[in-house]
Amino acid sequence: MPPGDDLAGEANVDTAWLAPFHDLVGRAAEAGHGDHGISAFTEVLGKPARQP
Question: Highest taxon of the source (predicted)?
């Protein structure tokens, strides 16, 4: 269980949105935008995700 999930569950907070956001952050970093701000996401949002 990821850190904080137990607290989120106790507080009845939905954290389902974190998984796709985490994937987007990873894609931005892989595309060379690791040191850039959140605006770098626009660079990867228009491109299809790589399939495993």
Answer: Bacteria
